[in-house]
Specification:
The chain is an alpha+beta fold and about 220 residues long. It contains eight helices and eight strands. The longest helix has 16 residues, at about 5-20.
């Protein structure tokens, strides 16, 4: 668990509050706060072994584990803040997106004076390879850069999780740093990726979708 500064807490709470007030909605999904009734949906994907292996998600081998994990997400008093990915067509939670901020000793000097967050996400294996995470993250980036006025967003992945790396590159992220993470008794090579707001805006313009200018531009 990270030790968050007051500035970190305020930034994360502001972003979480925006997402609670105005849930991010796409053609197929809505990002919303978790509810107690999401337990079985959460257990269905959190207990998947391959998803745990690829994401580094904590083992969730029984309903009691799932209940503890969900209760953590339901507590609004602390980061990280997690949002359920609800598939509209099935009215079912199929994954989650979490928002946090790394401690100062992990961040580069440039990042320390800029507004930025880390995103992590997992998705039920039954819904992989459908473009769902691309759809979600593109909408989330737009909100975070254009409305919340973040300067950067970063995400990480295990190097053996090739699909996650391709997704982040597809979204315009670039390599930031690499390190070895000890997880589940193994030493796992890990890569962190980052996208800066100016790069996101240039990418949007190149695609014909100019990013909304912030009030400070």
């Amino acid at each position: 668990m990270f030790n968050y500064t007051d500035a970190d807490k305020n930034l994360l709470a502001d972003i979480s509050g925006r997402m609670v007030r105005e849930p991010i909605t796409t053609t197929r999904i809505v990002l919303r706060p978790f509810r107690p009734g999401d337990l079985m949906d959460y257990y269905a994907y959190a207990s998947q072994k391959e998803q745990q292996r690829l994401s580094g998600n904590c083992p969730c081998d029984c309903l009691e584990d799932a209940e503890a994990g969900l209760n953590f997400f339901l507590d609004p008093s602390h980061p990280p803040y997690a949002f359920a990915i609800e598939l509209k067509a099935e009215q079912k939670v199929i994954g989650n997106v979490s928002i946090t901020r790394y401690p100062a000793e992990v961040l580069d000097e440039k990042m320390l004076t800029r507004r930025g967050i880390a995103l992590s996400y997992i998705l039920n294996e039954a819904y992989w390879n459908r473009g769902i995470m691309t759809e979600i993250l593109e909408s989330l980036y737009a909100m975070l850069f254009a409305q919340a006025e973040l300067d950067y967003i970063h995400s990480g992945y295990f190097l053996f999780n090739v699909a996650s790396g391709r997704l982040q590159e597809k979204l315009g992220m670039k390599r930031w740093k690499e390190f070895v993470l000890e997880w589940n008794g193994e030493q796992i090579p890990t890569r962190e990726m980052v996208i800066w707001r100016e790069d996101w805006e240039n990418r949007q313009k190149a695609r014909g979708f100019p990013g909304e200018k912030s009030k400070n531009d």
